[in-house]
Design goal:
Radius of gyration: 19 Å
Shape: globular
Largest sheet: 6 strands, mixed
Number of strands: 13
Length: about 325
């Protein structure tokens, strides 16, 4: 498991390099997949980098990635050969000492924030690799290709970005929490803003929860929780997929947090058809009690509109 995690970190870093390269050249090669759903050359090349790198070392692991791409000779040229040394220094948690490749599914979003990438809003771009064992999220890697310690996301020619990784039983590496107490009158929520058709659902949910502050962080919501800049993350709507949330949930659980769908059901991450459907919202927090409070305050009228086949507990989870 440690060697897999190290490979995922190296693959995410390699994907970040590819994304910065495409941005610098300016040849985005935009393809319109559906309404407000785009794919660029950076999405395609980043996915080829990640999938080919991991598959070359772990051929029996199932990888579910967002983009549907044909096999290409370019896959081999994008393989990252090195394995992250910092991860290899870690001791594998006992719970994963006997895990086999067939038990693992990786959920990959090679470039989360494609719309923002096209607009040059690079601070919202992330690379997501979630690790699930027997359907449960146990770890993840989130890479920010354009992150800079100076806070200037446009300095991409000279930055290597930031990579945060973690595993249940090991903790989270690459991020430092800030000191923040929860306000006595409410909490800070980081939200994933939904499509136009679901905006009213989010507004009514926020009115019911009454947070002290609301912020957005497209693609990097989990960092707001890990850095204690926010107390909980909420996503309302039926658009997001498991590759959007598996990495973040894996990191959250590695840090001792909890996450469910909007109904309080745990998300399962098996690579079958049911798990390829959209998820019924998302609520995550490092504070288990706050997580319960938020779920209880989501209006029933919102929950009633958010049911999908396969959204209940799955495979005994």
């Amino acid at each position: 498991m440690i060697r897999l995690l190290a490979t995922c970190v190296s693959a995410a870093n390699g994907a970040g390099h590819v994304i910065r390269e495409v941005a610098q050249l300016g040849r985005l090669g935009v393809v319109d997949k559906s309404v407000r759903d785009y794919q660029t050359e950076a999405d395609r090349r980043a996915q080829r980098c990640i999938v080919s790198t991991i598959a070359s070392r772990f051929p029996n692991i199932t990888i579910v990635a967002e983009e549907v791409l044909p096999a290409s000779e370019e896959d081999l040229t994008l393989i990252v050969n090195e394995v992250n040394e910092d991860v290899l220094k870690e001791q594998c948690p006992h719970d994963f000492s006997t895990v086999q490749e067939k038990d693992i599914v990786l959920w990959v979003d090679p470039l989360d924030g494609t719309n923002e990438f096209i607009q040059g809003l690079y601070e919202y771009v992330t690379v997501l690799i979630g690790i699930a064992v027997n359907g449960r999220p146990v770890g993840g890697v989130v890479h920010q290709p354009f992150w800079s310690s100076t806070g200037d996301s446009n300095q991409f020619p000279s930055t290597s970005g930031r990579t945060v990784w973690g595993l249940v039983g090991l903790g989270v590496r690459g991020v430092s929490p800030m000191v923040q107490e929860r306000p006595s009158t409410g909490c800070t929520l980081v939200v994933t803003w939904p499509p136009y058709s679901d905006e009213d659902k989010l507004r009514s949910t926020l009115e019911s929860i009454k947070p002290a502050k609301v912020t957005e962080a497209g693609g990097a919501e989990v960092f707001h929780l890990l850095e204690h800049r926010a107390h909980a993350h909420i996503m309302v709507g039926l658009k997001s997929q498991r590759w959007d949330v598996c990495a973040g949930e894996g990191l959250l659980r590695a840090a001792g947090g909890v996450a469910t769908d909007i109904h309080g059901n745990p998300l399962s991450y098996w690579a079958d058809d049911a798990c390829r459907e959209a998820i019924c919202g998302f609520v995550g927090s490092l504070d288990v009690g706050l997580h319960r409070q938020i779920l209880a305050r989501v209006p029933p009228s919102v929950k009633e509109t958010m049911w999908l086949k396969g959204s209940h507990e799955h495979h005994g989870l």
